[in-house]
Amino acid sequence: MGEKNTKSLKIIITGANGQLGRCLQDVAERYPDYEFKFKSSKELDITSKEQINSLFAHEKFDYCINCAAYTAVDKAETDQENAFLVNAEAVKYLSEACKTENTTLIHISTDFVFDGSKTTPYTEEDVPNPINVYGASKLKGEQYVQNILEHYFIIRTSWVYSEYGHNFVKTMLRLGAEKEELSVVNDQIGAPTYAGDLAEVIMKVISSKATNYGLYHYSNEGAISWYDFAKAIFEIKGMNIEVNPIPSEAYPTPAKRPINSELFKHKIEKIFPKNIKFWMDSLHKCI
Ligand SMILES: NC(=O)c1ccc[n+]([C@@H]2O[C@H](COP(=O)([O-])OP(=O)(O)OC[C@H]3O[C@@H](n4cnc5c(N)ncnc54)[C@H](OP(=O)(O)O)[C@@H]3O)[C@@H](O)[C@H]2O)c1
Q1: Catalytic site residue from 63, 70, 122, 134
Q2: Counting CB atoms within 10 angstroms of each CB, which of 20, 132, 152, 250 has the fewest?
Q3: For ligand 1, which residues put their CB under 6 angstroms from it?
């Protein structure tokens, strides 16, 4: 006779080796009552409908946290097909499997669904208008989730960093070790998000068994520029690097970025109060 499974919830995590996936692996240790199935891109390719359907048919999941994404924002401009395949079509396959198997989907999206022309923080009611391929593909993914599912949480976040993978903090630390002076854009405003904080909030959503399904904005608290962020990174590390502020035009990239990326977070704060940490505190923690 097989051992009886005493775990109260079963959760599948896609894209488990990315920044958020790795942070969820760390946070999962604090939830011994739950059974976590972490699937890397090699173990589960979400662009394969067959792989998704066969997995969901064999195992019953209470929640699916979709951390898999095509996140190479600049590359997406010339690789539109793959960006849409991962960020939109694959999200449709996941949503359909979740619908059939009665699994709640927690899907992560981005501030890049907005064009950045608003002068105040973006609310969940603001109309998206992406200005790059990545943003357009993520918006299409959101729309699939909303059209297919009732039991879902879409969490839009911004400027994600962590001790894992590729991100701005790690890039600055690498460049700071090579150079004494750096130029960083100071006219794009937003809030960094430590992936460890986002992972904790996701687990709060699950453990509270919240049924306030829908779309939410989440980032760390505060509004800064990339220039401010870079200066803080070097300050915390005690690195003496001269950081020069420059406008976006002086640092052209294949994908346009929104000037204003700030997300209004009152909706998530109402349901999960005191969970939004100040960006500088989280940066200290990560570094
Ligand atoms: N990073 C940011 O600044 C940022 C900002 C706003 C929102 N977001 C959103 O936040 C979420 C998490 O982002 P992150 O920073 O953790 O991303 P990440 O570090 O780039 O991780 C993404 C993961 O997805 C995996 N993946 C790619 N294609 C896949 C496929 N076909 N099947 C399964 N897995 C696949 C990748 O695996 P491989 O490495 O093997 O390809 C990688 O492990 C994403 O939805 C992203 O759009 C991120």
Answers
A1: 134
A2: 250
A3: 14-15, 17-21, 41, 44-47, 67-71, 86, 90, 108, 110, 138, 157-160, 165, 195
For ligand 1, mutation pick of 19, 86, 145 (most atoms within 8 Å of CB):
19
- Å from CA of 242 to ligand 1 middle: 31
**Is 134 known to be catalytic?**
yes
Give ∠ CA 169-172-174 in degrees, rounded to 5. 110
Q: Which domains does the chain have, with CATH numbers?
A: 9-167+192-221+262-277 (3.40.50.720)
* The two three-digit tokens of residue 45, written as one number: 């390719």
Nearest CA to ligand 1 atom 37: 41
149 CB neighbour count, 10 Å cutoff: 20
Interval between CA 67 and ligand 1 midpoint (Å): 6
Count other C-beta atoms under 10 Å from residue 252's C-beta: 7
pLDDT digits (tens, 9 = 90+) for 148-168: 999 999 999 999 999 999 999
- pLDDT tens digits, one per residue of 257-277: 999 999 999 999 998 877 799
pLDDT digits (tens, 9 = 90+) for 210-219: 999 999 999 9
